[in-house]
Hints:
The chain is α/β, with parallel strands linked by helices. It has one domain (5-232): Rossmann fold (3-Layer(aba) Sandwich). Helices cover 38% and strands 12% of the residues. It has a five-stranded parallel beta sheet, sandwiched between helices. Helix 1 crosses helix 6 (175-184) and helix 6 packs across helix 7 (209-220). The protein is globular, with a radius of gyration of 17 Å. The termini are far apart. The mean pLDDT is 91.
Amino acid sequence: MTPPRNAVVLLSGGLDSTTVAAIAKAEGFELYAMSFRYGQRHVVELKAAAQVAAAIGVRKHVIVDVDLRQFGGSALTADIEVPKGRAIESMSEGIPITYVPARNTVFLSFALAWAETLGSQDIFIGVNVLDYSGYPDCRPEYIEAYERMANLATRAGVEGSQRLKIHTPLIRLSKAQIVARGLELGVDYSCTSSCYDPTPDGRPCGGCDSCLLRAAGFQEIGAVDPLIQRFKA
């Protein structure tokens, strides 16, 4: 019997990263989940990430501390109001204020370090170019460039014992397609958190870009979001 391959999964506790973790698990990987306490305006997503990690059955889940509040520049890490009620069609126009400068580059660097120590050649990340085309670090060309750099940056890469692959299974899927794929895999979305501005108990605001896109995804496939149902109960 072939032993499972190790994979590092960047797990925020949101809908996309949870779906990616389920996909990696279904593909037979042994999962090592990595989340970040990066100075975000709430820790609800970290509680969600822990629940998701337990539900999916990861081998290990770590939370890394890196304080991006020192730099600010985002509604998620500074005292800047989170936009509410925007039209979905306008969300890809320009780079939104919820973009955290270089966040995916920072996260992938930590994932790369852990993958090397694990002897893993696989990193999974839930970037998506359709819903957030304004995010520069969610584009295919960015991921391809990072992957090339990563294979030049480690001892394992130089010595030829590692050929790193960054998996982006959601990159060209719509939110509806992502939700549908997750439901096919039995993902329990009631324990996820997508909101940029939730209440302390995790209740989504319903008006930020992430909430609106999530709602549209469930609505498009005629499904009910179990997270909303949980707070209605």
